[in-house]
Structure formats: C-alpha cells, structure tokens
Design brief:
2 copies of one chain form a homodimer. By secondary structure, chain A is α/β, with parallel strands linked by helices. Chain A has 25 helices and 33 strands. In chain A, the strands form 8 sheets. Chain A has a 7-stranded mixed beta sheet, with helices on both faces.
Chain lengths: ~725, ~725
C-alpha cells in the first residue's frame, strides 16, 4: 500500500493548455483519434500537437518536441512506442509539466517481467519528478463541464452531449466510456467528468473519484473498477463521499472466478477476495451493484441527493399487474409498504367513494382510467401519509402532458419520489424517458431498477446520518491494554500457544477459561482440585497448534488419579505426535460452561488489512461457509450487523429448547477483537478464537481455545 | 382442480366474424376503445357492433341484440354493466356462439361474496352451455398473425407492429399488453398472439399458452402470471412445450409477501407457495425469470429455438472491461469458459502472431481496433473449438456495416450465438438494436441478460434431450406394494403411530428399524434380548405424535432390569402427558446405527398436489430452512438434483472425519417416497420420515421415526 501524495487534479481535467505527443493526421491511428477528439470537443485553451514528422496539424502548428513549445502545458498526453515513453517523460519533467497521461501500452498489462519492470520505473520516475500521471495503457479523461477531452473513444464523436452532475471512473476505457458513460447519456443523464485509468502506475480510480467528489459539478460518482489497491485510501474517499453526501456507486468487475482471471490479464489491479470487498464497501457506505446498467439506473434517482427518512414506500398505479410487480421489487430490496394511516384512509375514502379500504401499493385500475385529477389527488394524499418515506407513482401509456405532470410531481414532491413509466407516449412517439431524465426527473422504465435505487438512497441516507452522528466512528471500549499485549507478544516469533494467546486476549478484555500450566502430574492434580469439578487437560507446546489432531487433550477429567493419568496420556500423545516438539507442560483448565460455540478470527487482506471474521462454530464455518467480515476496527452497530448477516443467527436467539445467548457480549467481543487486530496489525498475521462459547443471555462468554500466529513467522 | 375441457381456440383468436356487445362511439368509454381497436387493427372478417341505443357505428350497422345479427359470430365481446352480463350470455348461448370474452368487472376480483357468486354462476353457465369464455374482468386477445384484436389497450393504438413468433400470456392487461408486449415490440421482437385472461372463470393462462404452443406462428411463450390454478394442466402444458421444443418463460407476480397481498386484491388467482412453484417450474422444464424485461430479453435468443449442447461459452472482445463483465455474467449463471483447444490456440497463433497464449473469454483490445477481418477470423476460429457450445462476440461502437456483419455472424454461426453490442452506431445514430432484433438476430445490449438467456437455452436444451430420452418420466422402482399400503391405511381415520407408519413405509421398500410392540414390561425385556445390544423404548399411542415432547421415550437402554424400568417410565410419562390417550403399548426398537440424520416429508400443495420435501435433520430444516421440493412422483435424476440443491449437501460427502454417506440409497428413498405420496395422495395428508438415518456409503439407510396423517383427519 502506498499512500498517494494528494494533489488537486483540476489542471489535469481543466488544463489551460494541453499537448499531445504522438498526434497524427491519420483517422485510424490512436494518436490521430485522440487529437481529433481534443480539437473537436470545444476546448477553449491552447492545444499543442507534438510530432517531429509534421509541421502542421488541422491548422495548428505541430512541434518536434515538448521543449519547443511556447509555454509549459498543464497536461501532456503521450502516445508513442513503448520504448520512447521514458524519453518523452524526461522532456515533460525538463519543462515542468504537472500532469501527464500515458496512453501507450506495453507495461504491467502485458504480464511480462519487462512490462512490470517498465511500470515500476514509471512510478519511480513520477515520484522523483513530482509529476502526477494517469496510465499507462489508459484512455484518458473527458471533462464535459470545461470542454476538455483527451481520449480516443468514439463515444464522444457524435453531437456533444450536455454536461451533467454524474462522474464516471473506470479502469477500462471501453467499459467506462461506452458501456457506462455513453449509455448513461443515452438514458438522459449528464456527465461531469470521466476518467479511464488503465494500469494506474500513479493516479488510480480513487484519486479520480476524490477529484470528482470535491468538484461542485459532480453530485454522484459511478465507478466500474477491477479492484482497489489501497484500502486506506478507499476508506478515506468513502468517508469524504458520505461527508459531502455524494454517493459512490461501485461495480467491481472480476467478482467471480472467471472474471478475476480475465481481470488479471487486463491490468495489474489487485482484486481482493470478493466477499471481503463486499463487506468493506458496505461498511464504508458505498453502494455496490453488479452490472453496468445498475450503475446509471441508480444514478437516475441518487444524483438528486435526497435521502429517505425510512423504509416505507407507497405507490398508486393505473394497472394491477404493474403494482404487483412493483410490490415484489420493493420486497426484493427490503423496502416496506406500510398500511396507510387512518387519516390517509379517510382522505382516500372522500376521494374514492365506495372503494373501501385502500391497500398499499394501491391499484386504481378502474378508477384511474382517464381521471388525471383524481389520480393526482390520490397520489398527493398517500405522499403526505406520515408512514410513507418514498413515493413511486406508476404510469402506463400517456400523453406528453400526462407524463410531464408525473415527472413534475416526483421532482417537486416533499418525499423522495420516482416515477415508474412502463409504457409509451400516446401523442408523440418520439417522446421518451430520456426527455424527462434530461430535465432532471427520476423516471424509471422498470420496477427492479427503481426499487434498487430507492433502497440505495435509503441505505446511503442511513449512512450519512450515522456518520454525522459520529456513530460511524469505531469507539475503543474500556479495558484494552495495548502495551501489555505488545509486551506479551515480544519474545514470540512464531505461534502462541493457547495459554499465551488467551493471556493476550485477556489484555483486550476477553473472558477466558480458568487454567494453570502444570509441569508434573502432581501439579496437575493440585490445580484440578483448585478449579473444582471436572477439568480439561491440554498439551501446551508452541509446536503443536492442533491439539485434538495430536490426541493431546483430555476432557471432563475428574478426581486426583484420573487427572494424573490424563496428564501422562496427554504428554505421551504429544511425544508420539511430534517427538521434537518443545513442551511447556500441560494446561489444566475448567470445563467450558454450556453455550453456543462461535468462531472469531482475524485474517489479513492484502488491500484492506486486518479483517474480522465471525461465524457459528463447526459445520457453519467449515461446511456451510456462513461467515461475516468487516475491516478492523468495527463499531458496535457493525458488530451487530455482522451477526444478523449470518444465516444461522437465529440459533443464538433460543431455538430447539436452548435459551437465548448473550449476543451483547458477543458483539462486544467482536469490537474488542477488531481493536486488537487493528492495534497489533503489524505483529499478528492470523488469529483464531475457536471456540468462543456464548453463554445464556446476561452471562457473557468464554474463550475456550485460541491460536495466534505472529507476522513473519 | 378442474380439468378443463380441451378446446381448439383458433376461432377465438382468428374468428371469421366477431361481435362487440356494448360498442359505443365514445373515445373515452371502454366499449368505444375496444370497438375502435377492433376496426382499426385490419381485421378482414365481419365486425358486428351491438348496442340498442345506436343504429350505426363507424359506418357499420349497429344491432340492438345478438339475436338480430345476420350470422352467428365466432367470438363475442361483452362490455355491459355487471348485472346485464348474464342476459347477454343467454343470447350468446341462444344463437350458438362458441367463444365469448367478458370484459365486464364486478366478479371475484371485487373480493365480495356477491362477486364470487357471480363468478361461480358464470362458470356454471359456461359448462352447461358448452361455450368457452375469457374473463371476466379481462382485457381480451390480440392476434398479430391474422389481424384480429378485441381489447381496450392503447398499446396497439399506434402504427401496426409487425407479427412475429413470440406469444404473450398474462392475467393483467396493463402488465401483459404494455410492460411486456409493447416493450418487447420496442426492442424489435414480433408478437404472434397476446391474451390477458383476467379472473379466469373458464379459460386460463395455460389454455392460452397451449393454444399458442400449438400454433405454427409461435416459437416461444412468455407468461406473466399471478399464479396457477391447475397443477396437472401446468404439467401437461410444460410437457407439450418441451415436446414441441418451444420454451415457456414464466414470471410469477406476487412471489414475495407484499406482492402476494396485492395479487389477492387483483384477481382470484391462487398463488401457491413460491418455493414450491419455483421447484415445480424447474422440474417441468419451464424457464423462470423475476422481472418483465427478463421475459423479453430471454426471448431475443430463445425464439430461434436452437439449444446448446453443453455449458461451454467463448467470446472475443475489442475492449477489456467488457470481456470481464461478460465473464462475470457467465459465471453468475453457471456458464463455463473452457480453455481453447491446442488446435484453436495454434490457429489463433497464426492469426495473431506474438499474442501468446490466448485465454477465454478473449480480450483483443489493441489488435482488434479497426481490424474487422482479423476480428471475424478470430471469432470463427474460437466458434469452431470443440469445447465451445455458445459464442458471444462483443461489439462496442461500430458502423452500420460492422454491426450488420456481427448480426449476420451470430445468425449464421454453427454454434448458438448472440452478439453483445454495448455502444452506438457511428454512421447512423438512428440505427439501433431494434433494427437487428427485428431482422431476427440475437443481439443484446448488456452482459447479464445475454448470459441469462444463454443459460436458459442450455437448461431448456438439457430438458428437451432428457424428455426425448424418456428419462424425464418418473420410473416406478421395484418392491412397492400399493395394495398392501392401502390395506394398512384402511382402518385409520386419523394419525398413524410410528410403528404403523413404518409398516406402510416398509411396503414401499423403506428399510426401518427392527422393533416389536410390547404390552408388558416382561414382553419388553424379552424383545430387548431378541434384538440384542441396547434398545430404545417409545410409547405407541395414536394420540401422542410428539413422543419426545411427552418424555415418553428412553434411549440406549441395556439389560433386563433397565428395560423393565424404562417400560414403566415410558408408560407413566405418557399418562402424565395425556391422561386420556389410547396406548397400544411400548415399542422396543433397535438403536439406530450411526449416520447422518435426514428429514423426508410430503406436504400437499393446493395447486400441485403432493410435494416431496427433503432436508438435513435438526437445525438445517427447522432453523436454516435448507430444504428442496419437487412434485410427486420424481425421477432419480430429480432426486439427485434435490440433494445437490441443499446448502448442507456437502455434509453427506464425508467432512470433519465422517465417512461419505449412502447418497444413492437416499435418492432411491426420495423416489420411493414420491411414489407413495403420488399413489396414496387421496389418503395421506401429511407424512414425515424424521429422522431417516443415512449410513456409510454402501450401507443404506434406516427409518428411525415416522408420522403419517390421514386425509380428512
């Protein structure tokens, strides 16, 4: 992870002047296409083509070298053979160019050692020179706000699309500029900026997203990425998005196995494990989607930056089937359809005499036909219901005027609203959704994308409120002693035994089993008497991590003789299993009280650092893969959310005659573990608390076994 | 369940003459709108408006009554006040009209007792008269093939859309005719017939689907339904679809809770439990989707009726990001991306010198730009790879000619192929996907719908092949004695005890525990000695279904005295639990051998009849809801599929030190249970085999406990 130097990218996206090294007059060459887009896009600043083979290009003076330019351009594009890139970069540095876009390929994306070496050299060069650059192997930037484009894409070749408030960031040019940006424009969205970052030797998708978030011209950022390289920067940018109330919607490509394979062959992006990415994106308030249309469809509503206060939706429809489809779609995304209040029912009864009890969503089939004013009144009535947070009126086919009024309603509604228009325009076949979306209205053609966007607005609103309240910041519980834990860790270079791991966990407030290390059978018998009742005996050896596998464990041992015999058996089993193992002695331990076995763990993600994992014990983790993840540290709210994500969560609530378990204690321990993982991230490679027994509600929990692996071991 | 009289609906959809009772000259009234659509749709036959208040309508003679018409029309539409519907129907019957569409509302959809009564009367009238009719509360039929429309929808008001090979069936007019049919036409699909069936007092969506399947004009049927009323007809129609190799794609509205509520208020359709519908639809080879666009997007490919031979896909793309998105989408739907064969690699190496090993899907970014012939050659090369079953070339933006060539490729390709065109047309902005789809090509704008359709084609192909092979027909295993089972059931009117239920299961070939019914403690001790080892003692009473709850069970009892004591305890516990219970005695039973506990059951679905349920025992069924369903009887292939649908299926494969279990025996018992459920469907209301212990592979299984509830009890 490199912490990028922060730079204001304004002069990259809106340079006062720009040069293109490798500009040509060919309509098929890459350099020719980029040059043509630059000159055709209405850029008000100076453009300097650089090509030693030409004197003039499209009426502009063509220069042999950057050094010959009459001024230092703010932004230089480079489209030359791979082996010449570094010469041009040296020229850029020599004249003091601040921003460079390296279009040329032949770097890490080639998958060859030479390619990777070239890319490392590029990064080093940038760091040394202080220049910031995009690429290599990228497709540049488009700025609709200030009319600057430096890219080869044909997606801006037609009539100039109007600027808007949606920012687009992608690794891939084809996907980002065509499948996402151009298609978003086709449904009526306006784009502020677009960046296709390619191999990201320096500036990455997060830098571009941050620039867009900070610009007044952008209200929402759509990202189609192949991975994230810097988890900390990801967290910072997400935090800033919530602070500014500008959502980031993210599509992570290569989220499946075959996808990952293709991603690896395309750029050098490091794709973290998808489950972890998913959990962390949610944790940081990002909106994750799974295909390109979901990116721009979500933006149709969220670009307005209005956040519902709750999950309650209402709808009025002129057709029955469509209202059922909308209700289904709402349920799919956890949006609720509350019963209307008595006041609303009374108002509706006055409007629709003889209709009877009105259910939500509301099918007005026979009443609504041709009754525009009645429809509008019913809509306003349900919108003012106190239990309704969002309103989704349905329109089938209608006149331009009908549709325009519908769009006006959703735009001016006091509640967050979107119009679901499923049909056509009866008096102007050329009138489409694009006309309404272009004018700023939230209009959908289908129920699913509409309700997906509603849920996203609800989630982002929740997150913004949480962050404003300060509850999005993890709070350090009392009774955690980092220094003591570090002192304990010192002296270990490898694994910690169960006993040692428990000492460390105890320093972070974990309740552990009572236990003592016996070095003789007599000591063991003595300790067993102290503990009382039956005890467990377990080998204590840094070389035997899996004690059960070694057979070096005896449970529920009771009485002096039995304890002495068990001591001998445990030592003997350990000897047989690993003759060379260092043995500290035998741990004499209270038997764990009855409860539900959980597994808590910490793994290290190359991108996001220490990740806390929780699952129910046994088959739930190992076979059913029923686990939840979060990046450390976590808030108590997130710890609770992790538990509710488990399919087996109900097992903690008291089923099949078992009492409910102490979920509060469990959530507290998840938080503590997350701080331990965070505080000692440089020291601990892996950590398992397994089993952690959760006792009856109000009785806490007990660490029965644990394992810690040091970094570098 | 009513078995509908089979009728050829040709004269309903393509009448020689049609009358509309309630035709008016008003542009806003329902009758006026339907009449206008009838006359404007180009119908070549005679149209007879019937309205006693008018002499003439749009240049046609208007009749006071059906009895005044010069001939008997094949199809009569009725748009009159609810209370007058029966008078008009009497007129229809009097002149011998074969087909009627009742548009009028006020029947079961009103939710009132009078409405339901009227609907019952309607059905009775139809049965008695022999007339077949659609509705009430429906929106009629549209026949693009023969130019007949009797419907109010504005969706056919514009220029006449060309006929095509896609049939559309829906309960709802708004959803079926606008959201589905009109929108399908907007992307270039042609419709053969459309039917919006409303309340379905007589003809239902399955009747219309069957008519369309049998018509040469239809190659695929899209259904947007709120439920199915007749499970047997559903099976028959699905069977015919596979036989004719014409897929049915089905969207079931009201599949979620809120959706179901709205559905209940819209029509009288009975919505079965959604999990059961889902399982049965799959079992019968239907393609289920979850939103309207998925219906018509699936049809873009499947209307061509070509079925891939396997799951292997390949793609070539001019842009990297899009190929990753396609790979992800393929993985989402279980489509595979096989490595290219050595022969393909060699051919590609000749085409693309220096490119190195080519992976699938193939990103040709730098090579493909402007290299149309090269792209085409690469495409043909991968299409001929023996491991490739389907081909999905990606196009970004291109000229009309480029795009037309792409469409021609996928249409003429020897493999099943679809084109993914994500961008625009560079030389004609008005050229869209609609132009290509209209001409018959399978062209998609987005990766997800494209790969969803590919998977659907693969699944339907598998099902068609299965059905042709005869393996789709459940086969009756040997050793099932229906007569013996019936004889056992006779004499029971209520629940069967464990012992009695096991006798019945044994008659169908289930291996049950060795056991005897003891009536005294001494008998029990004697039986225990016969069985040897430890035994279980359980109360045998028709009035105590839950023996564990009653405490009337003792496990692992060993030795004469212990058995005698246990006998007394079990009897005593039963007395305490249910003093009035009839007690047959105490069952002395061998202890079940070690194995995995499963739950097998039968429930009765009001639509689909007996449904077999399988799940792992304990928390898996009760808490994790990890179960699989099928309608009885099932094939062995389906029994295996049920097991693989369980999330916990891996637990049977030998995890955590347990040996693999006898899954073949388990699958055989699922098949046997399904036949039992089918054979005795009139006799058995509920059946539980719980636990069924599955032993080590090769050692079979053992029924440890079972419960049967008789119908009517």
């Amino acid at each position: 992870m490199t912490k990028a130097i922060e730079t204001d990218l304004t002069r990259m996206f809106a340079p006062r002047s720009a040069a293109l090294v490798g500009a040509t007059d060919s309509t098929t060459s890459f350099g020719g296409r980029v040059f043509r887009q630059m000159t055709n896009f209405g850029f008000p600043g100076k453009i300097y083509p650089v090509n030693p083979r030409l004197k003039e290009l499209a009426g502009l003076t063509c220069y042999a070298s950057l050094k010959d330019l009459p001024e230092t351009p703010d932004h230089v594009g480079i489209i030359v053979a791979t082996e010449r890139v570094f010469d041009v970069l040296a020229d850029c540095a020599a004249v003091g160019v601040p921003f460079v876009t390296v279009f040329s390929a032949g770097f890490s994306e080639s998958g060859t050692p030479e390619g990777r070496e070239r890319q490392a050299k590029l990064l080093a060069f940038g760091r040394q020179s202080g220049m910031r650059f995009m690429g290599p192997n990228c497709n540049g930037v488009i700025n609709f706000v200030d009319s600057f484009a430096m890219t080869s894409t044909m997606a801006i070749a037609g009539p100039r699309a109007p600027a808007g408030n949606v920012g687009v960031v992608s690794h891939s040019g084809g996907l980002g500029q065509v499948t996402l940006m151009w298609r978003a424009q086709e449904i009526g969205l306006g784009i502020s900026y677009e960046a296709s970052s390619g191999n990201e030797a320096d500036l990455d998708t997060l830098d571009f997203a941050r620039f867009m978030l900070r610009s007044d011209a952008t209200d929402i950022v759509l990202m189609a990425i192949e991975g994230i390289k810097d988890g900390e920067k990801f967290r910072e940018v997400a935090h800033e998005a919530a602070e500014r109330e500008k959502p980031i919607v993210v599509l992570k490509l290569g989220s499946t196995q075959a996808g990952s394979r293709a991603a690896a062959s395309h750029t050098g992006a490091i794709a973290g494990d998808d489950d972890i990415f998913d959990a962390v994106a949610r944790q940081y308030g990002l909106i994750r989607v799974h295909e390109v249309p979901q990116l721009y469809e979500t933006a149709v509503l969220l670009r307005r930056r209005r956040w519902p206060k709750g999950r309650g939706a209402a709808s009025v429809s002129p057709t029955g089937g469509n209202v059922v489809q909308l209700a289904d779609a709402g349920d799919t995304f956890g949006v609720q359809w509350p019963e209307y209040s008595a006041g609303t029912q009374a108002a509706l009864a006055r409007l629709l005499p003889g209709y009877g009890q009105v259910s939500n969503p509301t099918d007005m089939t026979s009443l609504a036909t041709g009754q525009r004013e009645l429809y509008r009144s019913a809509l306003e009535t349900i919108a003012s219901d106190p239990g309704v947070d969002v309103v989704v009126p349905i329109f089938a086919s209608g006149t331009t005027d009908d549709l325009q009024r519908g769009a006006d309603f959703v735009t001016s509604c006091e509640k967050v609203a979107a119009m679901l228009w499923v049909g056509g325009c009866t008096d102007d076949a050329a009138f489409t959704r694009k006309d309404l979306v272009k004018a700023g209205a939230s209009v959908y053609r289908d129920a699913m994308p509409c309700m997906r966007a509603m849920r996203a607005a609800m989630d982002f609103g929740d997150y913004v409120r949480l962050q404003k309240s300060g509850r999005a910041n993890p709070e350090r519980p009392a009774g955690m002693d980092r220094e003591a834990a570090l002192a304990l860790l010192r002296g270990f270079t490898d694994k910690l035994t169960e006993r040692e791991a428990k000492h460390l966990l105890a320093a972070y407030g974990f309740p552990v089993t009572r236990e003592k290390l016996a070095r003789t059978a007599d000591e063991a018998a003595g300790y067993a008497r102290e503990i009382g009742n039956a005890v467990a005996l377990k080998i204590d050896s840094p070389d035997i991590a899996h004690k059960t596998e070694a057979g070096a464990i005896r449970l529920a041992v009771h009485g002096d003789d039995a304890v002495r015999a068990a001591y001998a058996q445990v030592v003997e089993a350990a000897r047989r299993y690993a003759p060379e193992a260092r043995v500290n002695g035998v741990l004499v331990q209270e038997m764990a009280p009855r409860g539900s076995e959980m597994m808590l763990g910490v793994i290290r993600d190359p991108v996001f650092g220490p990740i806390v994992v929780v699952g129910l014990g046994g088959i739930h983790v190992e076979v059913l893969k029923d686990v939840a993840y979060r990046a450390a540290p976590v808030t108590s709210q997130q710890a609770g959310a992790m538990l509710s994500e488990l399919r087996g969560a109900k097992l903690l609530d008291g089923v099949r005659g078992m009492p409910p378990r102490d979920k509060a204690a469990l959530a507290d321990l998840i938080v503590r573990l997350s701080w331990l993982a965070h505080d000692l991230r440089a020291e601990i490679a892996e950590l398992d608390v397994n089993p952690l027994v959760i006792l009856e509600d109000g009785h806490g929990a007990r660490v029965v076994d644990a394992l810690i692996v040091r970094t570098g071991s």
